[in-house]
Amino acid sequence: MDKAILLSELQYKAVRSSGAGGQNVNKVSSKVLLSFSVEDSIGLNNDEKEQIKQKLANRLTVDFVLNLSCDEERSQFKNKTIVTKRFFEILEKSLLKQKPRKATKIPKGAVEKRLSRKKSKAEIKKSRRRPDF
Question: In what residue span(s) does the Prokaryotic-type class I peptide chain release factors domain sit (predicted)?
Answer without folding.
Answer: 16-32
